Amino acid sequence: MNKTIENQLRLCPTLPTISSVALRIIEIGRDPDIDLREVAQLLSNDPALATKTLRVANSPLYMRGRQARNLHQAVTVLGLNATVSVALSFSLGTCLRDIRESGIDLDRYWRRALLSALAARLLGNAHGIFVKEELFLAGLLQDLGMLALDSAMPKEYGVLKPFVDDHESFPARERAAIDVDHCEAGEWLMKEWGLPEYLTLATRGSHDLRDVDAPEDLHTFIGCVTVSGRMAEIYLAEDQQKATADAVRAARDFLGMSPEQISDVLTQMAEELPEVESLFEMTVLSATQALGLTDQARELLATRNLQLLRSATELQERELEFKKQAHRLDHIARQDALTGIYNRRHFDESFAERFSQAVAAGHELSLAYLDLDHFKAINDQHGHPVGDEILVKVAERIQRQLRQDDLFARYGGEEFVLLLPAIGPKAAQKILDRIRDGVEKLQYPLESGAVLSVTLSAGIASYPLGPRKYETPDALMQAADDALYRAKQKGRNRVVSAA
């Protein structure tokens, strides 16, 4: 996030704030040695929060086998982490709902927040995530940045109000209009408040899991939050078909879930929503609306031939397959059909690029031109199939001795080229001597019982530590070719360096 917007947020007098109770809850969450009695004591100082925590412990959504009769029992039943998450959900929800003036539709914002929170919790349950209260909190707060941006820049952000219902494209519209989206702003505000890292990461990745560099063990957690917002839009968006397709695509991409599994989560959402509404004292949807919209969405998910859903999911798959096929074709086009190593086309393109990089950085770069000695005689006496087999085995032997960044290619016939990044003439000489020795030791048994062997000659030229600084890739190539010619003149089966 750029500094100008960060300063606007930091200096905004109406930026959402949190209560002292919420701050103390955050501190408790960081203390691994906290006593549950201290947590209960803190909650008892806020009668409304204490009452809600007790209700949660005995709620069908959270109850864990035995009823809690007092606050200490409630904290014991829920456990420390769950209690902190539940208390923060209510405390932060109360603080943020105290906002009365806003350019955005606050009623829609909170309905989406509760639907997302419930969806995140249920998605986590479907994936065996046992921190469901933390998922509920992450889902609840994922759009916090919208409140922050609306407070810090009401005029600029107000322009976006007509587009807020299309949440799928909304972050892109935010970035185009004000150079930041609500995911980034929410992450910043959460860090300012000192909220746990799992919340900041989930908020940053709430629109696209790929936007955040998170530990692998949090990918499914964040994926649940990413999908939860799309699940909420199924109930809120004007175009339910598109919202359902968006949810299907996100669930497949980020959680590997099928439409049938999404349908099951929607059914659970309709069943559990009344309890969530009761706990948060807010009506999200009427019972009739919830059941009706759920049935419609499930019908869309079950209709295999519905063109919109099929195009939304299959188009991306087709595009991905096209990209894979194009990559395969490009790889084939750059590969030597006989030996499997790179061909001349790929080498020429890559050589020019790597030469430019070496020149710009002042790094060493060595080029070797290799040629099998008297290879025409082998083809003439034993036939091209034998010659081809020898070329394949020579290429395999050389390839096994190279580093990952080295570039090795068949340049034509029995000629090969080898590019060695960050290697000077002395080191290149040692590498090519080792390669020459390895090729010489190869043996090729014939059906007649005879055994063939081959040798190679090589010429090396290095940039910039050769006898002169080569100005172009062609100049370096010519120097290596000249060195190869001298190796042939001196009797073959040797390596000659231009240095």
TrEMBL record:
Lineage: superkingdom: Bacteria
Please identify the protein, giving its name as recorded: diguanylate cyclase
CDD domains named in the record: GGDEF
Q: Where are the transmembrane segments?
A: none
Which species does this protein come from? Salinisphaera dokdonensis CL-ES53
Under Pfam families, the record lists: GGDEF (PF00990), HDOD (PF08668)
Family matches, as NCBIfam families:
GGDEF
Give all residue intervals belonging to the GGDEF domain: 363-499
Q: Which reaction does it catalyse?
A: 2 GTP = 3',3'-c-di-GMP + 2 diphosphate
SUPFAM superfamilies per the UniProt record, alphabetical: HD-domain/PDEase-like, Nucleotide cyclase
Q: Which residues form the HDOD domain?
A: 15-209
Catalytic activity, EC: 2.7.7.65
